[in-house]
Amino acid sequence: MQIKVLIIDDDPADREIFKHYLGRDEGEGFCLAEEATGTAGLARIALFQPDCILLDYDLPDIGGFDLIRQLKGEGAGSPAVAVVMTTAIGNEQLAVEAMKLGVMDYVVKGTAGCEALPRAVVNAVQRFRMEAEIAQHNSELETIRAELFEEKERYRTLTEAIPQLVWTADAQGRVEYANSRLREFSGQAGDVWHLSELVSEEDRAAFDLQWWLAPDTGAAFIAEVRLKRHDGVYRWHLVRAVPNRSSDHETVKWFGTLTDIEDQKRAEEALRQSQKLESLAVLAGGIAHDFNNLLTGIMGGASFVSDSLAPGPARSMLDVVVRSSERAAHLVQQLLAYAGKGSAELEAVDLGRIALDTTDLVRASFSRQLHFTADSATGLPPVRGNVAQVQQIVLNLVVNAAEAIGDRAGSVTVMTGLESLDTGNAAANILGYAPKPGDYVRLEVCDTGAGMDVVTLARIFDPFFTTKFAGRGLGLAALQGIVRSMEGAIQVRSVPGEGSTFRVLLPAMEGLCVAGSQRVPSDQSSMPTAILLIDDDEGVRKVAAASLRRHGHEVFTARSGTEGLGKFQEQQAVLGLVMLDLGMADMAGDRVLRELRVLSPDLPVVILSGYAERDIASRFAGLNVKRFLAKPFTVEALEDTVEEVLSGKG
Questions:
Q1: DSSP symbol at 588
Q2: HSE-up of residue 97 (Cα within 13 Å, Cβ side)
Q3: Whole-structure pTM over 0.85, yes or no?
């Protein structure tokens, strides 16, 4: 490869000597040019573009060092071309200064120095090119380093900006990087720690197993676990991690995020609880309906026979049957209360007064180590409900609170107050729905008992679950049904070892509207008439028909809606009353009644049902229903209802 050399020297003899020694070297091909002054040399450089300059230290117009500085311009480092400096005298200080300016070599004029001139030029050019390559490489490395730093800053900014907790970990799961959110959440101060240290004991075994199996699949790691916050509180998180694999497909690092899904989990659990309660409510309602039909036959039949017997042992035994049936009917009402379909009449109820009275009642039944405190805010509006059901709410909560403390010393605090809810502050409702905006009367019962863990808390309204030694009935299960039927809300806070707080919110009434009116007994008896009784339960038909016939009424019975419509058309001319069951297999009672009203708009109709009038009245709106008779009923209640309707009092 030819090397272009520019000789800048004011001595013609020296230039000839340099050309002689460079020209005789057959190992290298040199292309030579020469100038006598520094100014001319600078001009020639741009045209000749040499690979190396043989530069005399002492020039008449420009000193060698000054010329080098001009070659370098404003930049630092070496000149833009290889320079070998020549001088008539050897001077170590000059050599050091030359090297500092970027000169590749320093040659002393004379035979000894010129002998080595070709090699000095070649080495200078090679060294210059090598240093230029190194400089270029360093420049590229610096560019890469700057780009990496910029990328790192972008990554850091991104990980700090997103709402997730961001981390990286080695193949064993040791966290090597955590963004500020994760450091704040975990409270981890160490440089390296294991992600599973945050996982709850309940989730850790499954988490660790899934973690160790993940590298074999090479797929993303995904898990839902409870992670411990720095204050000891566990919150549900979605863990997602992507593996970084080596060329031999070994996982060497994980990049992951932690997303808080606590609210989502609570919503899912609330939905599951709501669906579970709805399913159980449907089951309880169905059982109660069928059981009411059975009780109507038992209670009505026993009371019918009892009325036909003279006083004696047999009549006394039938009275026991009637009382037992009434107790069974009360149990059915609890089932209906759990199902949210209680049949109690609604009225304005003073929740504050009931809370104070019930607490005083319970106080006497427990140890004196247990301290009861009851306080009710003044001027509370009433709630629309039933006194017995509201008493059941208070009684269940106060008794449960006392039993949670047991024989130990402790306290139960009962408070009532007013709370206003709107769409922005609607209280969390364990029943699974958001309460409507408005004013609510609040019942709050706090205890210092054992408290409940998450598993127990999730099952407190389950009618098949109890923490007591022996079951005590429906309890809280019936309570939630009552509150749900009143369109209220329930909040529960409980911590093991710290006790529990139950808050019940019931809609406040705007005015005192006592539901239901007192019926005035009639002094006049109605005339016997023809009655059509439509009910799919044989026991109900037999008892009701026998009771009505005893009072002189002619009774036609039908065991289905279809049969009832047929008999109605046959006997319409003589009928004075229709008694219609609400729930039948072939046709619902409201549908049957709509068909009847086409034929007879004004004929008196009494609806028989195991549900409350307020729960079914809307189904019969505009159909001219005279009365609703709740099952189970005694023959006396049946006869009184018929008497009131036929005499015009119903």
A1: -
A2: 11
A3: no
